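Bench notes, bay 3.
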Amino acid sequence: MWISGTSQYAIRAVVHVAVHGEDAPVRVGPIAEALDVPRNYLSKTLHVLAREGVLKSGRGPRGGFQLAVPAGKLSLARVTAPFEDVAKRHCLLGRAHCGGVHTCAAHARWEDVSKSLQAYFATTMIADLLGEARDAAAIPVPPPRPRATARRPCVRRN
């Protein structure tokens, strides 16, 4: 995919909050578990989204995250904006300066792809992604397998 892992986590988390946070805030732990994302990393990502007005957050026993904007008005571009500029392009051939007069062989064709990606992120709303997410939420998910906690004993060599 052409976006960072953080942006992917942000989109997945916002979709999860949109599906599960309509009636009550959703806590970080259940989101991280459902998405199989590191909890601490996701927590930081969600707090950035709250500061940017994408999510609203609450503290305490009834705290968690909910959408701050209706899903139908929340674009993917707005969700990913705090983490990266989808419009920013890097040269596919690795040139430091690619554009204007000095373009690489891939520049013109890649420009069309980049513009399409920007348009997709600008016009696709979180609500557009909820149908499939709600269907997936209705399917029971098996509990995660317990992680092995046993450690091998430390053996000292003389």
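Next record in the batch:
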Amino acid sequence: MKLFFFLLFSLCFAFGAEPVAVVKELQGNATVKRNALLYPLHKGDYLYRGDTLQTTKNTDIGLSFNDGTRIAIGSETLFVIDEYLFAPAQKAFQFNVHLPKGSMVFESGRIGKLAPEKVKIKVPQGIIGIRGTKFAVEVEE
């Protein structure tokens, strides 16, 4: 078992996979799809670029991204972290997420303040760009 975790850690390090967010709150049941594998989500779990979160009925998740952006995800939601880059020393920023269905509340962190044009939330009807700091969105089927 120790060998498995060592190999998993080594692979993440070798491919430069750095966590981009952490699950701060979780009430109910949710999963994360990562590299074509599905895992149960827990409070304290780290999230990475490319992760897809899915919540069940009566589930709420609170996420905190490395730049301080906070996102609350509601029940029966599908949420994808497409791109995330927070490198203020290099003035490099990117925050692209996708909400195919469900609901979320967004509160901007440092990326939204330093480079609001780099924040995009894709929904089936289009793309939301931010100019403020907080909004809610719901995507119905």
